[in-house]
User: Fold DNA topoisomerase 1 from Caldanaerobacter subterraneus.
Amino acid sequence: MAKSLVIVESPAKAKTISKFLGKNFKVAASQGHVRDLPKSQLGVDIENNFAPKYITIRGKGEIIEKLKKEAKDAEKIFLATDPDREGEAISWHIAQLLDLDIDKPCRIEFHEITKNAVQAAIKNPRKIDLNLVNAQQARRILDRLVGYKISPILWKKIKRGLSAGRVQSVAARLVCDREREIEAFVPEEYWNITAVLFDEKTSSKFEAKFYGREEEKIELKNREEVDKIINSLSEEYVVYKVKTGTKKRNPPPPFITSTLQQEASRKLGFTAKKTMLIAQQLYEGIEIKGEGSVGLVTYIRTDSTRVAKEAKEEAYRYITEKFGKEYANPDAEYSSKKANVQDAHEAIRPTSVFREPEIIKDSLTPDQYKLYKLIWDRFIASQMMPAIYDTVAMDIKNNGYIFKASGSSVKFLGFMTVYVEGSDFQEEEEEKTLPVLKEGTKVRLEELKPTQHFTQPPPRYTEASLIKELEEKGIGRPSTYAPTIATLLERGYVVKDKKVLKPTELGFIVTDALKEFFSEIVDVGFTAEMEEQLDKIEEGKVEWYEVVGDFYRDFYKTLKVAEEQMEKVELEEEVEVTDIKCEICGRPMVVRKGRYGKFLACSGFPECKNTKPLLEKVGVKCPKCGGEIVKRRSKKGRVYYSCENAPQCDFVLWDKPANEKCPVCGSLMVEKNTKNGIVIKCSNPECGYQKETN
Assistant:
């Protein structure tokens, strides 16, 4: 019998931790949250200091009973959920259900799943931090109040299925406001003049751009002004000033959650949601050949760039061995720009830099490899010396006017040997080299190129730039960026066109309604202030129910006004005409959206009210009759998969079928969504075979 029970969130994390602890330890998984507010009601007692009414999450009853049984047999219980507000809350809920004494140390915390970190945590348990729990609880209740109170009004006045949220609605507003800036933008004409010059002594050709006079820059606004300058130039171009020097390009800091999401979007094309899903797998543990289950990276929800001393020392050794001592920076330090960063956390980094991406590539899926390599490269670069450039800048004079030329060349690559940070916009100029000429040198004009330009509107947000904006404005926290963007897309408030985010008509309508009646909910400053209040709860400076109460007093008044005064909006439904004919009247069927998704309806409505389900084929043959398996919805809206020949053929599955058979029993394989990603498993419950997909 195990003497100690360690409880974590996921089976993958449990598997990785188990190998670091002896046979006296049993590691069990809660599989995420075990209790939450009920979906069917508000679940908050507003009259009783906003006391939450928690219930067991559906499907978690059996897991809780197993945990209770294991806890009953254990001498010690350690709660080892993730090291953040959410993890602390899960530990508190588990402690409540297991009737643990929260005044005794039962909580352990580690920021990487390694032998040293886990064993050190076991030796140093602490009490559950109720301030952290209360901060999470306050956020959850605020989000519930906003969502459950505003959403019914939006359903009634605009459209069913809509939602509002503290972070979500501000993010939607940012996208809508940017689109309106773009629509209102009036381009302004401007011109550049580029002189292509040649130095005979060095046989060098280079370009210099018109600046103006020595004492002032001249803006060229039209062709007439350009022609006036060109006509006043002489044939003699003389090097007037030369300035040479060096400049440093510092390495970027190691990743935090937001910068990882941004860079994975730029370099890998990953959505924020996909990045976090794969990063979670890397954190919790991957089966590495010859090592077993290994946690490859540190905790992935962090806003700290701090690096542990041991990790710095290991990186220094690696860089020195691999690149040379001159590349290693023993004094690499990064401080956060934000005042409210919790530096108990670390940056996102590899748990060991000696576990190079190429060495473990065969143990990773392609996407896991790409993201691990990105994290590994960035961390190694952050511990290297800056790149050094030789620079030269020249002023070329002609008849009192100045043309400027500048160039640079790499003197020492430094961190750029490993990594160069991506950019949202392709506007970085290529490195240009210039000849170093003496002052007074005459150069020959080869060509004078006047070019017309127009000012550009602000760019639309990408996922990366929206996350950056939210972070800079103090909206949301590391755990909220990915689900916020996913919600905007799922609700139809924004669409993704290539990489940019565009608001839909629905997004504009909802945002405008919220701006009119719930101005604070979509106010950037107010939402950032609420985040600061949550931080104060975490620090024990304010009571959580007071923060919620202060918010609700004004919020309640605006609810009443909105219910009475918000006008009903008639949305024009977009319909898609199909080639399918209505079997009743012969008119074409169209695709419409209903409460539970898309369906086929006669275009002759309301004269003809014929409807039928829109059968979406999944590309898999029915194993019983050979027909196509199609996606359907039950009367309650739940997705299931059955044969197109139903009801004559009774084949049915709740999980999406995969186009392959089980190698063990020959049954059809299915895709199962889990916290750690999609798992391909056998549809035969008696078989149990499964494999992970990419």
About this structure: Residues 220 and 242 are 25 Å apart (CA to CA). DSSP finds 17 helices and 30 strands in the chain. The radius of gyration is 31 Å.
